[in-house]
Write a structure and sequence with these properties.
heterodimer; A: alpha/beta; Rossmann fold; four-stranded parallel beta sheet; B: about 475 residues; alpha+beta; Porin; 2 domains; about 40% strand
């Protein structure tokens, strides 16, 4: 009899323990849980959400956002999310859809425009949109446009607006707080943009070579010209003949600068730089792409700062 | 606008000149003419005014149009700020052609993957373990897989995969997955799907790392274990990833281990599969998943005879995120144990494989696999069977015309497979592999494969 009771008690305890485990995720602090695909959005969301939000980014800033491992642990994070912010334009096509399916979270499904924020929907000046016939012999192209729009700092504003609008919908109690933070973010960014504009102004029209078609938006903003890429086609690694050709072009046009995001291979561009006398600049392409870059503004402080100081040095020579 | 003005002026001048000769000819009517001229002048002045007004309007319109086309930097920013923050904006219109628009709306995503292998076997009647492994010396069609995938509504998505091979077509998968939040973090898969048993069984051929299927998977699960069933998956809220799965259904697809029971009305004799999956992120570069599986169901040798299959799977991926963007090392291993009841005896078989794959450059990887299957209860090759069934390994199933069941093993078999793969892009692949097969009851077999794989259509997802 005693044994029976203890078994009963044991079963009851186990059952309650399980129920408790399943229910604990409900209590939570009243913070809005935000999951972003890349750290740029996380940084902006932190600026706007302040202490009212809890933000995590799935990809790291020093990682190629095209190729992220769909780790099952990400499913656990998306399962808890109130808001998913991602880049769109197929940047995350190889890894994010499968995670969203696994997340079993109605809030972040594509049909829900509040919890599912494809930030590219807010971008008006998309570049390299393919309207004609396309196929994969053209390399790893994105039919909806070049997805690296966050490298134009002006695009931080519509994205911040999109995030603020959603936070207000999800957590209307703190509307005033989010509005205030949004205003502060925009005015700080605008001030900075005009600063960067002045910094870049003397170098307008500079010809550069890049590794990947990553800098289209940045170059458009800075008014630089991309003469070629180290990759033969987007996503296709360089061939010797392509590199030889590129070296010739760099020498003929006297190009001073080769830039690449720090998640791309450095060997080939280093060789090209050595042979041509151009400077190879390895840049962070996302927030947290390098230690010390924790905000969207700090990202451009670094990028603009390094590019302009390199060009000044080159002129000095 | 300028043209029309010139035209007007031209008309007016013609009027004036056509009037003036009359004036000279009939001086007596000069007063009338003078009046007419005055009127004309007035008209001209009015017209000029109208023209000026129109021009001004035109200028304003043109200016506005220009502004719309190329909003200056500052203006865009101002517009963005002034918008009401409490509204979610509509997605920006994408400039797409009508054709692409109609194509994209509502249609499922379609993908086609073809896998072909040139093979050389060291013997005439090669020993092949899985249905889609290369069959003979020569060029083999391994599989053409056609996938249709899409969202049904806000509650379900539906995935369908057809597998074409030399034998014909198989409905490899066709299942719905629930998308919405359900109690206990559950998710259901309904339909025919690759069962959550171990790891390799959940991976389609095109995502596998070797030309041939690992020995234990081929022996115990067949090409794939894909019963039609209802599967419940629970995501347990623990600090790591923990998913519990349970499914029940019909083994309506031929598998080596499970078959429909004669007494098909008995719910207890359906196929039930349980799986526990864990994933631990040991560091940002190293992830380890560890799982356990159990499947139980009738094996078709006689009514009420069951097969119990146990599995353990381990997968580890090491991929440094900094500096070496494309290098990764993957280790994968599974152990399976089968306990199969037959009218004669209870068969106890086991199998194990381990593979190591090293991706040393963006487009290159190389790997090595060892696989073994063995048995505690070797069956005897039956001498007295008719010609053509001399390769019979096993206890015969009771089904009519179904003489080649593979429940029993003659002895120990192991296989060693080194491999080298080149992926020209994410959508094509060339793979070279050597298989050395050793069986303690038969001659050794050597095989060399050169596999080609091509994918068109939707960009597929890459499961971890």
């Amino acid at each position: 009899m005693k044994k029976l009771i203890s078994i009963k008690q044991f079963t009851i305890t186990i059952t309650f323990a399980f129920i408790a485990i399943f229910l604990t995720d409900q209590d939570a602090l009243a913070q809005v849980k935000i999951v972003t695909s890349v750290p740029d959005f996380a940084a902006i969301a932190r600026d706007i959400g302040g202490d009212k939000v809890e933000v995590i980014s799935l990809a790291k800033g020093y990682q190629n956002p095209h190729f992220v491992n769909a780790k099952p642990i990400f499913i656990t994070k998306l399962n808890q999310a109130d808001l998913l912010i991602y880049n769109g334009l197929e940047l995350e096509i190889g890894w994010l859809p499968i995670l969203i399916t696994g997340a079993r979270n109605s809030d972040i499904l594509a049909g829900n425009s509040i919890g599912h924020y494809n930030a590219s929907a807010s971008i008006k000046n998309k570049r390299e949109i393919h309207t004609g016939p396309i196929d994969r012999s053209m390399g790893d192209i994105h039919p909806g446009g070049n997805p690296h729009y966050m490298l134009d700092p002006r695009n931080g504003i519509p994205v911040a607006r999109g995030i603020a609008a959603r936070l207000i919908q999800i957590d209307s109690e703190n509307t005033a707080y989010y509005k205030e933070n949004f205003k502060n973010f925009v005015s700080a960014l605008k001030l900075k943009i005009s600063e960067w504009d002045t910094q870049l102004a003397p170098f307008k029209g500079t010809n550069v070579v890049t590794y990947h078609k990553l800098w289209a938006y940045f170059l458009n903003w800075a008014d630089f010209k991309e003469i070629g890429t180290v990759e033969t086609k987007p996503g296709i690694p360089p061939t010797p003949s392509h590199v030889a050709n590129l070296i010739r072009i760099i020498q003929r046009q006297n190009i001073k600068l080769i830039i690449a995001a720090n998640y791309y291979p450095q060997k080939t561009p280093t060789i090209i730089a050595q042979q041509t006398g151009a400077t190879f600049l390895l840049l962070p392409a996302m927030v947290e792409g390098r230690d010390g870059i924790n905000t969207y503004i700090e990202l451009f402080d670094t990028i603009v700062g390094e590019i302009t100081s390199t060009l000044i040095n080159k002129k000095g020579l | 606008m300028n043209l029309s003005r010139n035209f007007l002026i031209l008309i007016i001048f013609t009027l004036i000149f056509s009037v003036s000769p009359n004036y000279e000819a009939h001086s007596d009517e000069s007063n009338d003419v003078k009046n007419e001229l005055k009127e004309l002048r007035k008209m001209m002045e009015q017209m000029q005014k109208k023209i000026d007004k129109l021009e001004e309007k035109n200028r304003v319109l043109e200016h506005q149009a220009k502004q719309k086309e190329q909003p200056s930097k500052q203006e865009t920013i101002m517009v963005e700020e002034e918008k009401d923050l409490t509204l979610i904006e509509e997605p920006a219109q994408e400039s797409q052609s009508f054709f692409t628009k109609t194509l994209n709306f509502f249609n499922p995503q379609i993908s086609v993957i073809g896998i072909f292998s040139a093979a050389y076997y060291s013997q005439n009647d090669p020993i092949v373990f899985a249905e889609n492994d290369p069959e003979n010396t020569g060029v083999n069609l391994q599989e053409v897989e056609v996938g249709f995938q899409g969202t049904v509504d806000s509650y379900f998505r539906f995935d369908l995969f057809l597998s074409f091979n030399t034998e014909g077509v198989e409905l490899e998968e066709a299942y719905a997955t629930t998308l919405l939040s359900l109690p206990l973090n559950s998710q259901f898969r309904i339909g025919r799907a690759r069962a959550k048993f171990g790891r390799i069984n959940q991976i389609h051929r095109d995502s596998q790392n070797f030309v041939t299927l690992p020995l234990p998977a081929a022996q115990f699960l067949g090409e794939h274990l894909n019963p039609t069933s209802i599967e419940a998956n629970f995501l347990v809220p623990v600090p790591w990833y923990l998913e519990l799965s349970a499914s029940g259904g019909s083994p309506d697809v031929e598998t080596p281990t499970f078959a429909r029971d004669e007494n098909a009305n008995d719910i207890g004799r359906l196929l039930y599969i349980f799986h526990i999956a864990n994933f631990f992120e040991l560091s940002e570069a190293l992830g380890v998943s560890l799982g356990g599986s159990f499947a139980t169901g009738s094996n078709g040798t006689a009514s009420g005879e069951r097969s119990n299959l146990y599995g353990i799977d381990l997968f580890a991926k090491y991929r440094p995120l900094k500096n070496n963007p494309y290098q990764e090392v993957m280790f994968q291993s599974e152990f399976m144990y089968l306990d199969a009841q037959t009218p004669e005896e209870t068969l106890k078989n086991w199998g194990w494989y381990a593979q190591l794959v090293y991706r040393f450059a963006k487009r290159w990887n190389s790997g090595f696999r060892f696989g073994i299957i063995d048995t505690n209860t070797p069956v005897q090759e039956e001498e007295d069977t008719e010609a053509g069934t001399s390769n019979l390994f096993t206890t015969i199933r009771n089904e009519e015309g179904e003489e080649e069941a593979m429940l029993g093993l003659l002895g120990r078999t192991y296989r060693i497979s080194p491999m080298l793969t080149f992926n020209p892009s994410e959508f094509s692949r060339i793979r070279l592999q050597y298989d050395y097969l050793n069986q303690d009851f038969a001659k050794n077999q050597h095989a060399i494969f050169l596999q080609f794989q091509y994918a068109i259509g939707t960009h597929g997802a890459h499961p971890f």
